[in-house]
Amino acid sequence: MNRRNLPLIFCAVVVLLSALAIAAQSNSFTQTNPTWVKPFPAFRIAGNLYYVGSEDLAAYLIVTPQGNILINSNLASSPPQIKKAIESLGFKFNDTKILLISHGHFDHCAGSAEIKRETGAKYEVMEQDVPVVESGGHTDFHYGADKSMWFPPTKVDRVLHDGDTVSLGGTTLTAHLTAGHTKGTTTWTLDETEGGRTLHVVIVGSPNVNPGYKLVGNRTYPQIASDYRHEFEVLSNLTCDVFLGAHGGYFDLLAKYDRFKKGDKNAFIDPEGYKAYVADRQQAFEKALHRQSSAAHK
Ligand SMILES: [Zn+2]
User: Is the pLDDT of residue 206 over 70?
Assistant: First the structure.
């Protein structure tokens, strides 16, 4: 063996091992969550906003004359599925100019490295999630040591801050920091025009407290509880007509799509459903916090 080839061989082994790790990750999680990889028909939600995700992992495409914005890259195995969904609508995957995410967990951002590589899209991420996506999940406050949650590290091209806007070809999105689930969880809002009416679209980043999350005495995320409280305040104050989120399950994608397919053009207009969802998630958070606080004071 030529010694000069050693670094090359080492690189090849690293690439192979990370590919195997990603394959293993996809297998273990998709066995428990088959809807994460189950293809779903791409469709136009309102104005220039389209659904291009799987049955439960949501991805959104905003089509403009200057190229497109994609929200969420999903699993490391998802990019071919997202590409297919975009092409089924008659658009080009390579027209993706900006890539955004809901938050820095592998089920929403593991495909980012590949999408950047293939399309050259600019990756724009909320400041507090930047270290997580750039380290491939190694610096996540809760899952950092859990290999099964790691993903390909991806360089961020623009660091976003709370209230920043992302504009392209006449469409502007606003990034709302709604942290707690991750330190940089982002809820996206934008306006769409449909039938002469302006619709306020809200894409919820995640209001959920995952199993095992420490809301009291969290050493790696001391302000987690106050961040969740702030998130619910922000979400409660948003005006929402079209209710969307990082997972189809948040906003009942299947039932709404079914109505939409049967001709209900307003199936995704659901201000009441949005309010009820936020209230329900806030209650779940308060309950978890109360349980953990009482246990800590015993
Ligand atoms: Zn998550």
Answer: yes
